[in-house]
Structures are given as structure tokens and as C-alpha cells.
Amino acid sequence: MRSLVGLFVGLALLSAACESNNPLRRERRAPIEPVARQAVPPNPEPTKAPPGGVVQEPAAGPAATPAPGVTAERYPLPKSAPAAAADRKVVLAGELKVEVSRPDEAIAGLRGQVQGWGGHVQRQTDRTVVVRLPAAQFDAAFQWLRGSGRVLTESQQAEDATEEAVDLGVRVDSAKKARDRLLAILQQADKVEDTLKVEAELRRTTEDVERLEGRQRALADRVALATLAVAFQPLVDDPEATRQKRPSRFAWINRVGAERVVEDF
Amino acid sequence: MLRALCGRVVLAAVLAAGTGCSSFMRLPDGFLRLGDKDDFQAVTGDDARLWAREFYDPNTASLGFWAQALQHEFVHQRGYEVVAVGDIASKRRTAGVWIECATHVGGERVGYLIGLWVDGNFIRVVEFVAREDVFAARVDAVRQTFSTVRW
Fold first, then answer.
1. Residues B130, B47: Cα–Cα separation, whole Å
2. For chain A, first and last CA: distance in Å?
3. Closest CA relative to residue B110, chosen from A233, A256, A261, A246
4. Which chain B residue has its CA at the smallest distance from A255's CA?
5. Most exposed residue of A75, A230, A263, B1, measured as fewest CB within 10 angstroms of its CB?
6. Is the ipTM of this complex over 0.90?
7. For B2-148, which CATH class?
8. CA-closest candidate to residue A152, choices A227, A254, A92, A235
9. What are phi and psi of A35, to 5 degrees?
10. Could you tell me the residue ranges of all domains in chain B?
11. What CA–CA distance (Å, rounded) separates B72 from B77?
């Protein structure tokens, strides 16, 4: 009889232990404060265990709250590939050195094209022009420039700024929430000393929000508009080098010309 | 190879004939014919250069074709600026074309004038090159002497 009772007690304890290891049960029972719920993005699998089997604990306070984007970063959402690609923040930049017979005309032509593409000239130094143009027109610009002369050097960079954008979003949200909390505290403060302290902290937090939002806007601008630096090199600076690189198909033509008379005379 | 050699022989014969009775072409004032050269070459004291040559090309093309090919090469491949283009006739009434250009050689701005005549597969040219200021002072005189070329 005693052994039968012992068996029941053992089974009951084992069952309780199993329940406490069930992550779904654990999630249901975990205390989630309202702030923490707001911070977590709408993730269909918010507490799904990663491959290592560690479940992310819901935070007890706002400071340790899993922020938007962080969860998504660690446990990628099951988005379709095109949707994920569309969400990517890519900063495009390029440089070109083009040899042209008339740099001034080429620069004027580029300026006109950039306007047509919806971009603008950021600066021009001598024969180097830096333009900003919609990222969607980046390839078209390269295509056009390749046809404007002989490309001497060409480079393109695509910097993935998705993580930076997400991080900035998280920090802006956190700073705004901190500011809201400070405002609430300020309304409840009854001592002058407390009021002054909270106001100082509020100023600092507000500055943080503005600074971070400024960085967000700058990043959005860098993503929206690609930067293209084009240096136009006059072809006449080194006609001999050009001649040797691109000889005429007619041999006799390669033997005439000012440089040939100067050198072969 | 043989045709190229023939071309040089023909040019040598023409130049020899030219120098036999009179010069291959009348030289503008200030030019000196260089006697130690196979081709017709002349210079001035301020280093303006005149050079007459003949080339063979296996492609038989018209004067218009070669003139256009030359201009294309000069402008689009070498960055020359074409200043002016005109027609000429040699002493033997052979139709030709002259092309005047401006360009840089060795970092120096120079003027370049070429007279072009075509006879079947033979292309004949007279070239004049000088530093920009020297060129400007002499180019008209040189262009006029193109009509005295014995081609």
C-alpha cells in the first residue's frame, strides 16, 4: 500500500516537473507588463526557442524589455524573400572616372540628366561632380555615363544599413518612452528639487530623441538618394596614351596625326 | 608588304621627279627642306614641321570616306578639336581635303593641318604641326601651298 502511495506521489511530482519545463506554459505564466507587450513587435512566434533551446525571458522592467527589431533580428520573421528584400535599407554609392573630349559639355549633359532623374548636384569641384539621385536611377546613371566617354575607373558600393535603421528605430522608441515616463513623473513631482532634477533629465532625453530622429532622417536620405561622384578627364591631356590604347582599324591612320609628326619626324 | 614597298617607290619617284626639276611642293617662307630624309620633310627655325607621306591601304575607299575616318579618329579617339575643314586641289587637279585641328602633344597646345588626297589604294598626306602661336602665324601660308603639291 505504501509503495502504491509512493508511486502516485512520484508520478504527481514528475508531471509537475514536466509542466514547469514546457515553454508554452512558462510563457503563459510569465508576468508581462504592459510596456513590455508594447515593445515586442507582432511576431507570430515571440517566444519560440532558438536552436540552442534557450527561451528569451520576458523582461521585468522597461530597461530590459526586448525592443522592436531586436527580436526580429534574432529570430527572423517568416517573411517571403521579396518582402524581406523590400525591407532592406541599402545605401548606394559609386565613383566613375570618364575620359571625354569635352568635359564641360559632359558635365552640362550630366547635370541635365540628373535633373531628369529627379536628383540634384551636390557639389562640383573643377571637373568632378558629385550628384545625388534616386536609388532606382542608379543603374541608369551608370549606363548613361558609360556611353558619355571612355570609362577609366568605375566602382560601386552597396552598404546594407538595415541593421542601423532597426537599431535607430529601437533607440528612438526607447528614448520617446523614457521621455513620456519623465513627463508623467514630472506631473506628479511636488518638491522643487525633484522637479528640477526631472526637468534636467527630460531635457537630456528630449535632445536624445531629436538627435536620434535626425540620424534617422539622414539615413533615410542616404537610402533614398544614391551618391555618385564622377570625374571627367579631358581626352586631350594624353592623346598619345589614348591612341595606343584604341588604335584605328586602318593602319595608315595610326601613323598620321600631330603626335606622330612630333615624335616620328 | 610588296604593295607598301611599291607605295614608297611611287612616292620616292614622285618626290624625286619633283626635286629634279622643281620641288615636290612650293615651301612657304621660312621652311627648310631636310635633305637627309626619304620623305619630304621641312622645318622652320621655330620648329614648325611639314611632312608629306604616302600610305597604301588594302581597302579601296573614296576621299570622302577617308576624310570622315580621319575626323572620327581625331575627334573621338584622340580628342582633337576640328577647327575647320575644306577642299583643295593639287597642282595636277587631284581633289583633296584639308582638316585643321587643335590638340595637345606633350602637354603643349599645338595646331595640326593635314591635306589628304586619295588615288586608288594610295593615300597621300601633307601634315603641318606647330606650337599654337607658331601654327596660327603660318597655317594660311601652308594651306595655300597645298595647291602646289605635285600629286
1. 7
2. 124
3. A261
4. B55
5. B1
6. no
7. alpha beta
8. A235
9. -60, -45
10. 2-148
11. 7
